[in-house]
Predict the structure.
Amino acid sequence: MQLKHAIFPISAILIWSGNTIISKMSAGVIEPAAISFYRWLLAGILLTPFCLRGVWRQRRQIRPHLWKVVVLALFGMVLYQSLAYFAAATSSAMSMGMIASLMPLLTLLISSWVLREAPTWGTLLGGMLSLFGLMILIGKGHPAQLISNGVVFGDLLMLLATIAYAFYGVLLRRWALPMATWHLLYLQIWVAVLLLLPLCLAAPYSPVTAANLPLILYAGIAASIISQILWMNGIAHLGASHATMFMNLSPIFTVIIAVAALDESLHAYHAIGGGITLAGVMLAQLIKRRIVPQAA
């Protein structure tokens, strides 16, 4: 039964991996601020017939939590996706996907700080291993050259984007806002639209064209709505912990799609650095023994 329902999280992760490719394809075709704005505007318009009435009915209960919704939208939708679009100008889709695979590990690390959860041996050892793998990946197989040659700016932006989304996940868990999941998503989308509007207006004019429309449609419909439906079904049937384990497939999917769709070359440092990073992430998820026993 679990294998049957695994199709839900796997499909969601496949769509999100495809969205990394869309981010790379958008570079040079549409301004990062523009596609971020158009994406969430489209998603908000499509969800309005289904969510607006319910949100309006619960407006009194929602009002005290609006500032938290703004913070969540800032981390999860504005910073994460906008930084990813900017990163795509100089980072490869493979590197972006592998850096994004750090998200579960970063979430565990931030949880230890924000939620005061005692860190585990898996988090410590996995973090050190993933850091080493990331140095190999960003240093293109030569970690020592990071000191002399510096870091690819796009890789750094993608790392910041991943950290922002890890904060989003931790805050979402900490606050546990008393509203339906779809209503919370709907509110975040429109807050993101409002936050992104000034950036879109300040950026060079970038209209919707035949070249960038498919990218906007994929990001606004598949990556923003369909993937959410699939992911929530996966959590409902498998539970959050089991569904999250499938996130480890994301860099593998991204590499396959990048090779097929973008003709990117898979180098040894991708396989070695990405493999070590992924091994560290899995180690952090599997070893649950705490370094310091959790207080009662």
